[in-house]
Protein backbone atom coordinates (compact mmCIF):
# COMPACT_ATOMS: atom_id res chain seq x y z
CA UNK A 1 0.00 0.00 0.00
CA UNK A 2 1.57 3.24 -1.15
CA UNK A 3 0.46 5.31 1.81
CA UNK A 4 1.66 2.71 4.28
CA UNK A 5 5.07 2.65 2.67
CA UNK A 6 5.20 6.43 2.51
CA UNK A 7 4.12 6.77 6.14
CA UNK A 8 6.59 4.19 7.34
CA UNK A 9 9.30 5.75 5.21
CA UNK A 10 8.79 9.13 6.78
CA UNK A 11 8.96 7.66 10.25
CA UNK A 12 12.08 5.72 9.35
CA UNK A 13 13.65 8.80 7.88
CA UNK A 14 12.86 10.88 10.94
CA UNK A 15 14.53 8.26 13.11
CA UNK A 16 17.54 8.15 10.79
CA UNK A 17 17.53 4.37 11.03
CA UNK A 18 15.10 2.71 13.40
CA UNK A 19 16.59 -0.72 12.83
CA UNK A 20 19.91 0.54 14.17
CA UNK A 21 18.41 1.60 17.50
CA UNK A 22 19.45 -0.88 20.21
CA UNK A 23 16.29 -0.69 22.31
CA UNK A 24 13.28 1.44 23.05
CA UNK A 25 13.33 0.58 26.74
CA UNK A 26 15.80 3.32 27.74
CA UNK A 27 13.64 6.22 26.53
CA UNK A 28 10.21 4.73 27.33
CA UNK A 29 8.06 7.40 29.08
CA UNK A 30 5.26 4.89 29.70
CA UNK A 31 5.01 3.27 33.12
CA UNK A 32 2.97 0.31 34.31
CA UNK A 33 0.15 -1.41 32.46
CA UNK A 34 -1.51 0.33 29.51
CA UNK A 35 -5.27 0.16 29.12
CA UNK A 36 -6.43 0.30 25.49
CA UNK A 37 -10.13 1.22 25.46
CA UNK A 38 -12.08 0.73 22.24
CA UNK A 39 -15.30 2.26 20.97
CA UNK A 40 -17.05 -1.11 20.87
CA UNK A 41 -18.45 -3.51 23.45
CA UNK A 42 -17.87 -6.54 21.25
CA UNK A 43 -14.84 -8.76 21.68
CA UNK A 44 -15.62 -10.44 18.36
CA UNK A 45 -15.84 -7.37 16.17
CA UNK A 46 -13.30 -5.72 13.88
CA UNK A 47 -12.40 -2.93 16.33
CA UNK A 48 -11.36 -5.46 18.95
CA UNK A 49 -9.43 -7.49 16.36
CA UNK A 50 -7.57 -4.48 14.99
CA UNK A 51 -6.73 -3.20 18.47
CA UNK A 52 -5.64 -6.62 19.74
CA UNK A 53 -3.15 -7.16 16.92
CA UNK A 54 -1.47 -3.83 17.63
CA UNK A 55 -1.66 -4.19 21.43
CA UNK A 56 0.03 -7.59 21.24
CA UNK A 57 2.77 -6.24 18.99
CA UNK A 58 3.43 -3.30 21.33
CA UNK A 59 3.44 -5.61 24.37
CA UNK A 60 6.13 -7.77 22.81
CA UNK A 61 8.15 -4.87 21.46
CA UNK A 62 8.17 -2.87 24.70
CA UNK A 63 7.94 -5.73 27.20
CA UNK A 64 4.83 -4.14 28.68
CA UNK A 65 1.20 -5.14 29.14
CA UNK A 66 -1.17 -3.44 26.67
CA UNK A 67 -4.65 -4.74 27.51
CA UNK A 68 -7.64 -4.12 25.20
CA UNK A 69 -10.84 -3.22 27.04
CA UNK A 70 -14.08 -3.33 25.03
CA UNK A 71 -16.10 -0.70 26.87
CA UNK A 72 -18.01 1.04 24.03
CA UNK A 73 -17.64 4.56 22.70
CA UNK A 74 -19.24 6.50 25.58
CA UNK A 75 -17.18 4.84 28.30
CA UNK A 76 -14.05 4.91 26.13
CA UNK A 77 -14.25 8.67 25.56
CA UNK A 78 -14.85 9.24 29.28
CA UNK A 79 -11.85 7.06 30.16
CA UNK A 80 -9.74 9.00 27.70
CA UNK A 81 -10.68 12.28 29.37
CA UNK A 82 -9.11 10.92 32.57
CA UNK A 83 -6.03 9.58 30.81
CA UNK A 84 -3.58 12.47 30.98
CA UNK A 85 -0.75 10.22 32.21
CA UNK A 86 -0.91 8.09 29.07
CA UNK A 87 -1.83 4.83 30.78
CA UNK A 88 -5.21 4.92 29.03
CA UNK A 89 -5.29 5.24 25.26
CA UNK A 90 -8.10 4.63 22.79
CA UNK A 91 -8.42 2.86 19.45
CA UNK A 92 -11.50 3.51 17.34
CA UNK A 93 -12.41 4.21 13.73
CA UNK A 94 -14.13 6.85 11.59
CA UNK A 95 -17.31 6.72 13.66
CA UNK A 96 -15.43 8.87 16.20
CA UNK A 97 -15.86 11.89 13.92
CA UNK A 98 -18.87 10.73 11.89
CA UNK A 99 -20.92 10.50 15.10
CA UNK A 100 -20.11 14.16 15.70
CA UNK A 101 -21.04 15.15 12.13
CA UNK A 102 -24.37 13.35 12.49
CA UNK A 103 -25.03 15.00 15.87
CA UNK A 104 -25.10 11.77 17.87
CA UNK A 105 -25.15 12.10 21.66
CA UNK A 106 -21.79 11.56 23.32
CA UNK A 107 -19.69 12.58 20.33
CA UNK A 108 -17.56 15.72 20.19
CA UNK A 109 -15.13 17.13 17.64
CA UNK A 110 -12.23 14.74 18.18
CA UNK A 111 -9.73 17.18 16.71
CA UNK A 112 -10.60 19.81 19.30
CA UNK A 113 -11.20 17.50 22.25
CA UNK A 114 -8.49 14.83 21.93
CA UNK A 115 -5.03 14.26 20.51
CA UNK A 116 -5.01 12.18 17.33
CA UNK A 117 -2.57 9.30 17.22
CA UNK A 118 -1.38 7.05 14.39
CA UNK A 119 -3.55 5.10 11.97
CA UNK A 120 -3.01 1.35 12.13
CA UNK A 121 -5.37 -0.53 9.79
CA UNK A 122 -8.28 -0.41 7.35
CA UNK A 123 -11.15 -2.87 7.23
CA UNK A 124 -11.68 -3.10 3.45
CA UNK A 125 -14.85 -5.18 3.89
CA UNK A 126 -17.47 -2.52 4.71
CA UNK A 127 -20.39 -3.36 2.42
CA UNK A 128 -24.04 -3.15 1.44
CA UNK A 129 -26.11 -6.22 0.65
CA UNK A 130 -29.57 -7.22 -0.61
CA UNK A 131 -31.55 -10.47 -0.32
CA UNK A 132 -30.37 -12.96 -2.92
CA UNK A 133 -33.90 -12.92 -4.45
CA UNK A 134 -33.95 -9.10 -4.61
CA UNK A 135 -34.91 -7.46 -7.92
CA UNK A 136 -31.96 -5.13 -7.36
CA UNK A 137 -28.92 -6.68 -9.00
CA UNK A 138 -26.70 -3.63 -8.66
CA UNK A 139 -26.49 -0.46 -6.62
CA UNK A 140 -27.50 1.44 -9.74
CA UNK A 141 -30.76 -0.55 -9.69
CA UNK A 142 -31.34 0.69 -6.13
CA UNK A 143 -30.69 4.31 -7.14
CA UNK A 144 -32.98 4.02 -10.17
CA UNK A 145 -35.75 2.36 -8.16
CA UNK A 146 -35.76 5.21 -5.65
CA UNK A 147 -35.67 7.72 -8.50
CA UNK A 148 -38.72 6.06 -10.05
CA UNK A 149 -40.78 6.28 -6.89
CA UNK A 150 -40.04 3.03 -5.07
CA UNK A 151 -39.36 3.19 -1.33
CA UNK A 152 -36.00 1.58 -0.60
CA UNK A 153 -35.49 0.64 3.06
CA UNK A 154 -31.86 0.53 4.20
CA UNK A 155 -30.92 -0.99 7.58
CA UNK A 156 -28.07 0.91 9.23
CA UNK A 157 -26.64 1.77 12.62
CA UNK A 158 -27.08 5.56 12.85
CA UNK A 159 -24.23 7.98 13.22
CA UNK A 160 -21.31 6.01 11.87
CA UNK A 161 -19.84 3.94 9.09
CA UNK A 162 -23.26 2.49 8.25
CA UNK A 163 -24.87 5.88 7.83
CA UNK A 164 -22.19 7.51 5.70
CA UNK A 165 -22.71 4.87 3.00
CA UNK A 166 -26.47 5.32 3.30
CA UNK A 167 -26.01 9.10 2.97
CA UNK A 168 -23.92 8.58 -0.17
CA UNK A 169 -26.67 6.44 -1.74
CA UNK A 170 -29.30 9.02 -0.85
CA UNK A 171 -27.13 11.82 -2.23
CA UNK A 172 -26.61 9.88 -5.48
CA UNK A 173 -30.40 9.65 -5.87
CA UNK A 174 -30.68 13.39 -5.23
CA UNK A 175 -28.12 14.14 -7.95
CA UNK A 176 -29.70 11.85 -10.55
CA UNK A 177 -33.35 12.31 -9.55
CA UNK A 178 -33.71 15.63 -7.67
CA UNK A 179 -36.49 15.51 -5.11
CA UNK A 180 -36.65 11.72 -5.02
CA UNK A 181 -33.96 11.15 -2.39
CA UNK A 182 -36.52 10.73 0.40
CA UNK A 183 -37.54 7.45 -1.21
CA UNK A 184 -34.36 6.05 0.39
CA UNK A 185 -35.40 5.43 3.99
CA UNK A 186 -33.20 4.49 6.94
CA UNK A 187 -34.16 1.65 9.24
CA UNK A 188 -32.12 2.53 12.32
CA UNK A 189 -30.95 -0.59 14.11
CA UNK A 190 -28.07 -1.60 16.36
CA UNK A 191 -25.66 -4.48 15.87
CA UNK A 192 -24.89 -6.40 12.71
CA UNK A 193 -27.17 -9.16 13.95
CA UNK A 194 -30.00 -6.61 14.17
CA UNK A 195 -29.38 -5.45 10.60
CA UNK A 196 -29.27 -9.02 9.34
CA UNK A 197 -32.56 -9.78 11.06
CA UNK A 198 -34.21 -6.86 9.27
CA UNK A 199 -33.26 -8.54 5.99
CA UNK A 200 -34.29 -12.04 7.15
CA UNK A 201 -37.72 -10.70 8.15
CA UNK A 202 -38.23 -8.91 4.84
CA UNK A 203 -38.29 -5.50 6.51
CA UNK A 204 -35.18 -4.14 4.77
CA UNK A 205 -34.43 -4.00 1.05
CA UNK A 206 -30.73 -3.21 1.63
CA UNK A 207 -28.54 -3.63 4.69
CA UNK A 208 -25.11 -2.44 5.72
CA UNK A 209 -22.76 -5.29 6.53
CA UNK A 210 -19.23 -6.46 5.94
CA UNK A 211 -17.33 -9.15 4.09
CA UNK A 212 -16.24 -10.63 7.42
CA UNK A 213 -19.74 -10.80 8.92
CA UNK A 214 -21.90 -11.48 5.86
CA UNK A 215 -19.93 -13.47 3.30
CA UNK A 216 -21.18 -16.74 4.81
CA UNK A 217 -24.78 -15.81 3.97
CA UNK A 218 -23.93 -15.20 0.31
CA UNK A 219 -23.16 -18.92 -0.11
CA UNK A 220 -26.73 -19.95 0.73
CA UNK A 221 -29.21 -20.93 -2.03
CA UNK A 222 -31.55 -18.19 -3.19
CA UNK A 223 -34.61 -19.79 -1.62
CA UNK A 224 -33.05 -19.61 1.85
CA UNK A 225 -34.52 -16.79 3.95
CA UNK A 226 -31.02 -15.78 5.06
CA UNK A 227 -29.45 -15.75 1.60
CA UNK A 228 -27.99 -12.41 0.54
CA UNK A 229 -25.55 -10.95 -1.94
CA UNK A 230 -23.19 -8.01 -2.08
CA UNK A 231 -23.98 -5.05 -4.30
CA UNK A 232 -21.35 -2.58 -3.03
CA UNK A 233 -18.07 -2.51 -1.13
CA UNK A 234 -17.42 1.06 -0.04
CA UNK A 235 -13.61 0.78 0.13
CA UNK A 236 -11.36 2.43 -2.41
CA UNK A 237 -10.22 0.07 -5.13
CA UNK A 238 -6.60 0.86 -4.21
CA UNK A 239 -7.30 -0.39 -0.68
CA UNK A 240 -8.94 -3.59 -1.94
CA UNK A 241 -6.02 -4.14 -4.31
CA UNK A 242 -3.87 -4.68 -1.21
CA UNK A 243 -6.22 -7.32 0.20
CA UNK A 244 -5.14 -10.99 0.00
CA UNK A 245 -5.78 -12.43 -3.47
CA UNK A 246 -7.84 -15.27 -2.00
CA UNK A 247 -10.15 -12.75 -0.32
CA UNK A 248 -12.47 -14.27 2.26
CA UNK A 249 -14.58 -17.39 1.89
CA UNK A 250 -15.82 -17.65 -1.67
CA UNK A 251 -15.37 -13.93 -2.38
CA UNK A 252 -11.90 -13.44 -3.83
CA UNK A 253 -10.13 -10.13 -4.41
CA UNK A 254 -11.04 -10.01 -8.12
CA UNK A 255 -14.73 -10.35 -7.24
CA UNK A 256 -14.41 -7.67 -4.57
CA UNK A 257 -12.89 -5.20 -7.02
CA UNK A 258 -15.96 -5.59 -9.25
CA UNK A 259 -18.10 -4.44 -6.30
CA UNK A 260 -16.13 -1.25 -5.59
CA UNK A 261 -15.39 2.02 -7.33
CA UNK A 262 -14.92 2.68 -10.22
CA UNK A 263 -16.95 -0.40 -11.23
CA UNK A 264 -19.74 0.64 -8.85
CA UNK A 265 -20.47 4.32 -9.25
CA UNK A 266 -21.92 6.40 -6.41
CA UNK A 267 -21.66 9.93 -7.83
CA UNK A 268 -20.75 13.05 -5.90
CA UNK A 269 -21.56 16.62 -6.88
CA UNK A 270 -17.96 17.27 -7.96
CA UNK A 271 -18.09 14.48 -10.54
CA UNK A 272 -16.09 12.00 -8.49
CA UNK A 273 -17.39 8.75 -7.04
CA UNK A 274 -17.90 8.23 -3.33
CA UNK A 275 -15.63 5.75 -1.55
CA UNK A 276 -15.07 5.09 2.12
CA UNK A 277 -12.27 3.24 3.91
CA UNK A 278 -13.14 2.20 7.46
CA UNK A 279 -9.93 3.23 9.20
CA UNK A 280 -8.67 2.47 12.73
CA UNK A 281 -6.48 4.87 14.70
CA UNK A 282 -5.25 5.90 18.14
CA UNK A 283 -6.74 8.73 20.21
CA UNK A 284 -5.10 10.26 23.28
CA UNK A 285 -6.05 12.64 26.05
CA UNK A 286 -5.60 16.22 24.81
CA UNK A 287 -2.97 16.92 27.49
CA UNK A 288 -0.93 13.76 27.04
CA UNK A 289 2.85 14.15 27.29
CA UNK A 290 4.18 14.75 23.75
CA UNK A 291 7.03 12.37 24.61
CA UNK A 292 4.51 9.52 24.83
CA UNK A 293 3.04 10.42 21.43
CA UNK A 294 6.49 10.53 19.85
CA UNK A 295 7.52 7.31 21.59
CA UNK A 296 4.50 5.35 20.38
CA UNK A 297 4.97 6.74 16.85
CA UNK A 298 8.57 5.53 16.99
CA UNK A 299 7.60 2.14 18.43
CA UNK A 300 4.92 1.52 15.83
CA UNK A 301 7.27 2.74 13.11
CA UNK A 302 9.69 -0.01 14.09
CA UNK A 303 6.95 -2.62 14.37
CA UNK A 304 5.62 -1.87 10.89
CA UNK A 305 9.17 -1.68 9.50
CA UNK A 306 9.76 -5.21 10.82
CA UNK A 307 6.87 -6.41 8.65
CA UNK A 308 5.41 -9.20 10.81
CA UNK A 309 2.37 -7.20 11.92
CA UNK A 310 1.24 -6.72 8.33
CA UNK A 311 0.99 -10.48 7.90
CA UNK A 312 -1.10 -10.77 11.07
CA UNK A 313 -3.40 -8.00 9.88
CA UNK A 314 -3.89 -9.54 6.48
CA UNK A 315 -4.76 -12.91 8.03
CA UNK A 316 -7.62 -11.13 9.79
CA UNK A 317 -8.56 -9.38 6.52
CA UNK A 318 -7.26 -5.95 7.43
CA UNK A 319 -5.24 -3.73 5.14
CA UNK A 320 -2.10 -2.44 6.93
CA UNK A 321 -2.32 1.33 7.25
CA UNK A 322 0.34 3.01 9.35
CA UNK A 323 0.67 6.79 9.44
CA UNK A 324 2.40 8.56 12.38
CA UNK A 325 0.35 10.98 14.45
CA UNK A 326 0.89 14.28 12.64
CA UNK A 327 0.20 12.79 9.21
CA UNK A 328 -2.71 10.77 10.57
CA UNK A 329 -4.35 13.91 11.97
CA UNK A 330 -4.05 15.79 8.66
CA UNK A 331 -5.36 12.78 6.74
CA UNK A 332 -8.34 12.22 9.05
CA UNK A 333 -9.23 15.92 9.07
CA UNK A 334 -9.40 15.80 5.26
CA UNK A 335 -11.64 12.73 5.42
CA UNK A 336 -13.94 14.44 7.91
CA UNK A 337 -14.29 17.47 5.62
CA UNK A 338 -14.98 15.26 2.59
CA UNK A 339 -17.78 13.36 4.33
CA UNK A 340 -19.17 16.52 5.91
CA UNK A 341 -19.85 17.75 2.39
CA UNK A 342 -21.82 14.57 1.60
CA UNK A 343 -23.90 14.95 4.78
CA UNK A 344 -24.44 18.69 4.28
CA UNK A 345 -25.54 18.16 0.66
CA UNK A 346 -28.61 16.27 1.90
CA UNK A 347 -29.74 19.23 4.01
CA UNK A 348 -29.59 21.90 1.32
Automatic annotation (TrEMBL):
The UniProt record lists the keyword Signal: yes
Keyword field: Signal
Database matches in InterPro entries: Bug_dom1
Coiled coil (residue ranges): none
Gene3D superfamilies: Bordetella uptake gene, domain 1, Periplasmic binding protein-like II
Residues spanning the signal sequence: 1-25
Name recorded for this polypeptide: ABC transporter substrate-binding protein
